[in-house]
Amino acid sequence: VQLQASGGGLVQAGGSLRLSCAASSSIFSFNDITMGWYRQAPGKTRELVAVISSEDRTNYDDSVQGRFSISRDNAKSTVYLQMNSLKPEDTAVYYCNAVVLSRIYWGKGTLVTVSS
To answer: Per-residue pLDDT tens for 48-62?
Structure first.
């Protein structure tokens, strides 16, 4: 599975951004893939932000609950992360992640910078 994330950038605190991650695979159907977003801030370990299953079940880290929303468009093989009410502590490189049949795939990250 190849993953291409986009949508990062610089935004002021309180602002919004939407990240996109387009997936492609010659083996797996996007419909069968659990998709997630992780982030890694400078000097910190990578952490789960949000995940959406093939059945559209979602789960969020407590730090983003109520501010971020993950969704998927199976027709476009794309997963989105809508980020609202951004805080400086949301600054990180955001990575798209795909899990299917216990195989894990990562895309290149996209940088999100939130200024105070």
So the answer is: 999 999 999 999 999
Backbone φ and ψ of 71, nearest 5°: -150, 165
**Closest listed residue to residue 115, CA positions, set 83, 86, 82:** 86
- Nearest alpha-carbon partner for 22 in 94, 93, 98: 98
CA 29 to chain centre: 19
**Which residue in this structure is represented by tokens 């880290």?**
61
For 27-50, letters b (16+ CB in 10 Å) and e give: ebebeebbbbbbbeeeeeeeeebb
The C-alpha atoms of residue 34 and residue 79 are separated, in whole angstroms, by 10
Place of tokens 């949508």: 7
Q: Look up tokens 């659990």; give the residue.
A: 34
Chain segment 34-44, per-residue pLDDT in tens? 999 999 999 99
